[in-house]
Amino acid sequence: MTRANGRRAVATRSASDRADGRVKAFARRASRTGAAVLTAALVVLALGAAAGRWQVLPAQSVGDHVSFEAGSLVIVEPIDARLLDAGDEIYVQLDGADGGFRNVVSIVDSWERKIELNGRNGERHIVEMPPKAWRVSRVIPYAGIPLGILVGPIQSIALVVFGLGLIVSAEWKRSRAERNIDLDRALPAASPVTHDTPVTTG
Asked: Are 72 and 139 in contact (CB under 8 A)?
């Protein structure tokens, strides 16, 4: 191998190392950004739910004539039950059973908050609503299946902690990589020595 070939080999390795470094740096930035976005979204959802501004619920029990399927992820917002209208979709508990999503057929008595709901399998129910009803605001199809186990205050707190952990881990890796780069810069660059490099002896 000649001296020129040695220099070309070193230059090729340096270019490859720089490319690898750029890819790794991009991956670190992407992971930090993703963790930050996930954490921010979870914080917003958790704070909104804690303040009673909305709830995020998996659609497990869905009645007739509801516009979305079971397995969706649904955001519901509070509304005065007297303001409900026919065609609204709400989250409601019937006779102490688990909550479900039902379609409002008609308003029987708005002041008494009595409404008629579509049940399941063709059933209909006339119910007296509490002062606050939870009306469907947003629907994310199919997202309720993987996220159903993540809904709830304890799960939200755990996810926020997990997201913060991802950010801390990414920052720690970034700092360690920067320290390694500074160390490499501090070391003297080694000159390529090949078998035909002349060596002068004293």
From this structure: yes
